[in-house]
Design brief:
calcium, globular, mainly alpha, four-stranded mixed beta sheet, CSC1/OSCA1-like_7TM
Length: about 700
């Protein structure tokens, strides 16, 4: 691939981006599209735009760019939550590190690569991209020290930025937790329903009191360690007691129960303590937020989870193998000589310059992108089948799967190009991995560059346009004749697709920085545009329905470290092939330093993202007790984890039924009005509510 083919691809993508972003700036001004481009504002403000006709509505303008640029991180935290702020931090980190890389590589490496061998150079548009890669540097060149120095600068800069970002985000996470309103999940633990039933039943008999149960509802009791949850639940459940709601019913309904504690510290203590000598017999973990509960998975027994995880792993591997078909076809398009030999009838067509440039420079990445659209929904399905009890956990698991899948297929499978047989033969010589990568990566630099253009630039303009939502809105208004701007079709931010995409481009940038530095300016433009587009979407489109409180940053940190180490291993192989023992010798300590830095960050910052420190929880408990907010929190806990919302009208209706027929006192959950979006999932899960102070009982 030559420079002219690269410029052709760049020109096509620049044109697509300009047209789509200009069209977006016009469509967002139309009152009929307010539900598409301002869904979050419809939910928060509950207002509609006026419909005055003005010429300005049909003229593209950069007002949305200015607004996105001026928005501060504090506003993003208030609007989009912790996850949105962390996601933008990932983008900002990428802008900073690749700004450094662009300056160093363009002024230091590109001249060395271009003049790496004594040859007659063509005009720049006719030059092959390989001339600008490290493959053009001759063996034994004394200028390879520049590549080693650049690798050191990029690695040290990345580690410094990672350290300060990790430290800052950890502080932001703790500040966000302590500054937010009391969270029911901090007082709640998910435990074994059968065990809790036996405890409640035994405690009730000790006090000569029967606990009352309601199917898919609440549980109350009165003992030394248990407090009565709600008198109203007795009216709802009628005479349904421990005798009627037996152990067999609990086993049939749900394998888990939510237990409330009087303090946050008590809940954390119970979640961390091993409840039984058999770790799989009785498991307790902190419960997710009420809006974050994935109700349909609460009925999955813990002993089935490892089987489900193995099953989804096997299914994911099978999906990867099937995906080799489109990837292999794409690689055939990038190698024009092989394509002409396989399909002789294409020789005449491919002799045309424009068709040649289109097939080799644009079409392969487009085909791969279209095939990649099937990956996120598939991985989301696998993550749901794994048994995650929270929606944020399911999305985070899908994020990791999509990330691994894209890195494997976009980078490794494309690097070791050819057929499926050549992919498998790679594993027969694992010791030659650095050398094989060193030979293969520079050859694929042109494909990775065009992939950044098509999958990066074009995808951002498509993200701004919201084609699917726009199409649905057009059908609703002009086919179904529905004119109201309903906010019921809003979506949460698709972290499971966007985080892997951003991290994949960062991965490509690190691995190709010293090998093919010509890609870096295109990457920097992508991250700069991504910062504005994603910020605009967070402000106007997506509604934060649940969040993981910054859990995506450790994923970004680990991916960056992996990218750095892989780039160093590839550089080590290149220096070995180029016969530069000095550069090879200096690269080995850099690999060790990077791994030690990663281990330090894991010990220093990772525990803060796994668990909230007890010191912080105790301070929050003491502050709430002094301010008198605990009683208010206890009142909220009584109705926090209800899959279906019971309205006061339904509650009064059930009370009147109790006077006529106690057997019909339990309302049908299927007829109850669903509350918020998190409670609209159907399922047969049963949630048990109680109030247990583990700290007081342990002291006794």
């Amino acid at each position: 691939m030559d420079i002219s083919a690269l410029l052709t691809s760049a020109g096509i993508n620049i044109g697509v981006c300009v047209v789509l972003l200009s069209l977006y700036s016009v469509l967002r001004k139309q009152p009929s599209n307010v539900g598409v481009y301002f869904g979050r504002r419809l939910v928060s403000v509950c207002s509609k735009r006026s419909d005055p006709f003005s010429f300005e509505r049909f003229v593209p303008s950069p007002s949305w760019i200015v607004k996105a640029w001026e928005t501060t991180e504090e506003e993003i935290l208030a609007i989009g939550g912790m996850d949105a702020a962390v996601f933008l931090r990932i983008v900002v980190f990428s802008i900073r590190i690749f700004s450094v890389a662009v300056v160093i590589c363009f002024f230091l490496l590109l001249p060395v690569n271009y003049h790496g061998q004594e040859m007659h150079h063509k005009r720049i548009p006719l030059e092959s991209l390989e001339v600008f890669t490290i493959a053009n540097v001759k063996e034994g060149s004394k200028w390879l020290w520049t590549h080693c120095l650049t690798l050191y600068i990029i690695t040290c800069s990345a580690c410094i930025l990672l350290y300060f970002e990790y430290k800052s985000i950890a502080k932001m996470r703790l500040k966000h937790i302590t500054g937010a309103p009391p969270n029911p999940s901090h007082f709640s633990v998910l435990t074994d329903a059968e065990k809790m039933y036996m405890i409640f039943k035994a405690s009730a008999h000790e006090q000569n009191c029967q606990p009352s149960f309601m199917q898919r509802g609440l549980c109350g009791g009165a003992t030394n360690s248990l407090e009565i949850v709600s008198r109203e639940t007795d009216n709802v459940s009628g005479k349904t007691g421990s005798g009627d709601f037996d152990l067999a019913t609990i086993r049939k309904e749900c394998a888990a129960a939510v237990v409330f504690f009087k303090t946050r510290y008590g809940a954390v203590t119970a979640a961390e303590v091993l409840q039984s000598s058999n770790p799989m017999l009785w498991v307790s973990v902190l419960a997710p937020e009420p809006h974050d509960v994935y109700w349909s998975n609460l009925c999955i027994p813990y002993r089935q989870l490892w089987i489900r995880q193995i099953g989804t792993l096997v299914a994911a591997i099978a999906f990867v193998l099937v995906f080799l078909i489109p990837v292999t076809f794409v690689q055939g398009l990038t190698q024009l000589d092989q394509l002409q030999q396989t399909f002789p009838f294409l020789r005449g067509l491919l002799k045309k310059k424009f068709m040649n440039q289109l097939v080799t420079g644009y079409l392969p990445s487009v085909i791969l992108i279209l095939a990649m659209y099937t990956v996120p929904p598939t991985m989301m399905l696998f993550s749901a089948l794994e048994g995650s009890i929270s929606r944020s956990g399911r999305k985070r698991s899908a994020c990791c799967k999509v990330l691994y899948f894209t890195i494997w297929n976009v980078f490794f499978v494309n690097v070791f190009t050819g057929s499926v047989i050549s992919q498998l033969s790679f594993f027969s010589s694992v010791k030659d991995i650095p050398a094989q990568l060193a030979k293969a990566v520079p050859r694929q630099a042109s494909f990775f560059t065009t992939y950044v253009l098509t999958s990066g630039w074009a995808s951002l303009s498509c993200e701004a346009m919201q084609f699917l939502a726009l199409f649905c809105n057009l059908v609703k208004r002009f086919v179904l004749r529905i004119k109201d701007d309903s906010s019921n079709c809003t979506f949460s931010f698709p972290y499971h697709t966007e985080v892997p995409r951003v991290l994949l481009f960062g991965f490509l940038g690190f691995t190709c920085s010293i090998l093919a530095p010509l890609m870096l300016p295109f990457l920097l433009i992508y991250f700069s545009l991504a910062y504005l587009v994603y910020k605009n979407q967070i402000l106007n489109v997506y509604v934060p329905k649940y969040e993981s409180e910054g859990q995506y940053w450790p994923i970004a940190h680990n991916t960056t470290i992996f990218s750095l180490v892989l780039s160093q291993i590839i550089a080590l192989g290149v220096f070995g092939i180029k016969r530069s023992p000095v550069a090879s010798g200096f690269t080995i300590p850099l690999i060790i330093f990077t791994l030690l830095f990663h281990q330090y960050c894991r010990q220093r910052f990772r525990p803060i993202f796994k668990m909230i420190p007890a010191e912080v929880l105790i301070e929050m408990d003491q502050k709430d007790e002094q301010c008198g907010r605990m009683e208010e929190m206890y009142q909220k806990l009584r109705s926090a984890y209800c899959q279906f919302t019971i309205t006061p009208h339904e509650l009064l209706g059930s009370e009147s039924l109790n006077h006529h027929d106690n057997e019909k006192s339990i309302p049908d959950p299927e007829k109850l009005n669903a509350g918020n979006e998190a409670n609209q999932l159907n399922g047969s899960s049963s949630v048990v509510h109680c109030n247990l102070d583990i700290a007081e009982t342990s002291k006794k």
